[in-house]
Amino acid sequence: MNRILQALKNKDSLSACCPGLLESVNIHLQSRVLQLQRENMSESVFKCGWVALMGPPNAGKSTLLNTSVGQKVAIVSPRPQTTRNRITGILSGKDAQVIFMDTPGIHQLRGKMNRAMLHSAWQAMEGADVLGIILDADLYARRLEFLDKDLAPLKEPIAAENRPVFVVANKVDLLGDKSKLLPLLETLHGFWPKAEIFPVSALSGEGVPRLLEAMKKALPEGEPQFPEDMLSTLPMRFMAAEIVREKLFLSLRQELPYSTAVDIEAWDEDFERGHVTIHAVIYVGRSSHKPMVIGHAGKNIKQVGQAARKEIIELLDRKVHLELWVKVRENWNEDASFLHALGLGAQ
Ligand code: GDP
Ligand code: MG
Fold first, then answer.
1. Could you tell me what percentage of the chain is helix, strand and coil, using 3-state DSSP and rounding each to the nearest 5?
2. Whose CA is nearest to atom 13 of ligand 1?
3. Lowest-confidence range among 19-23, 162-166, 218-222, 305-309?
4. Whole-structure pTM value
């Protein structure tokens, strides 16, 4: 040791005093550098990509999206088919950014409006890196015979997929006995042998972190595409319209089927006083629907306005003045240019 220390004082004599020492130090240093580089690399690999959430209506796609993103970005309703457009939510983490596309339920649909929804669902699928198929596991655990028919439009295209597919067996919180899931999981595995299957409850969050981790891993490497604090790519006015529409759905229940649309006609920001005035028009397809939306002495529309305003305030984090108008527009859901103007993208 002394010899080495002495030699270290005099660089020139080091190799002479300890032949082979410099070489082994060198090798050691080189491998240490490589190891550090590898560690650094694995730390800095960032994943970023698009996940399409697909599946039958009412499966819990919007709920899963909201739970994943940690905030309400899609409307959730106990009635099917309330998600009409492509809703995106963004989950940003230190090692990945997951961009979700919520899609209308894929199933057999009729009419222009429904064709527009189906078109938008397939479009979302085309642009995705990873596919998520969401199913109501509670329903199919009880009625396995429904599965074939409900999944008919998805079965073949998904089986032929080369992209990673995640099958989400949702609503497991409703299953008292989890072993009832097994025949369903086996059937799903038979449909899509390459897919990974995750039992979750989008509502309680059970199983969701595991699913998200697996989805992140399956994403391609890439830089984040959106700012870290952005939760959705949708404009705030679209989200405000969705909130009004959700409150309408909730208040009208059975009475008005899917024949209401909400359009934000004006959005006036008063930056000095920190508040925004929103004029929203609720379109109904028939004049007989108008009094239903308004309600006796305006009671219904008032409630819708109050509930929607509360949520829009949360969303925008400022004072909101919300004005609601009801207009009749016969057969609006068959009018392609009107659908387009509402952002429903009928082609
Ligand atoms: P989507 O049509 O697939 O977007 O379904 P939604 O997210 O709108 O959910 C449909 C209904 O199922 C709503 O009433 C949700 O509250 C409910 N739901 C969604 N996920 C769960 C879940 O994990 N457990 C239970 N019990 N209900 C759920
Ligand atoms: Mg939905």
1. 50, 20, 30
2. 78
3. 19-23
4. 0.62
Best mutation site among 53, 63, 72, 151 for ligand 1 pocket (most ligand atoms within 8 Å of CB): 63
Which of helix, strand or coil describes residue 209?
Answer: helix
For 72-100, what is each residue's pLDDT tens digit? 565 554 444 344 445 567 888 889 989 88
Q: Which ligand is nearest to the CA of 78?
A: 1
> Pocket residues for ligand 1 (CB within 6 Å)?
57-63, 76-78, 80, 83, 105, 170-171, 173-174, 201-203
Contacts from 172-176 at CB under 8 Å and sequence distance 24+? 172/137, 172/138, 172/199, 172/200, 172/201, 172/206, 172/207, 173/201, 173/203, 173/204, 173/206, 174/138, 175/137, 175/138, 175/141
- Considering only 168-177, 201-210, 278-287, which range has the smallest mean pLDDT? 278-287
Structure-block tokens of residue 299: 């009671």
CA 80 / ligand 1 centre spacing (Å): 9
Atom of ligand 1 minimally distant from the CA of 81:
2
**Cα–Cα distances in Å, from 19 out to 1, 2, 23, 31?**
14, 15, 8, 20
- Calculate how far, in angstroms, residue 57's C-alpha sits from the geometric centre of ligand 1: 9
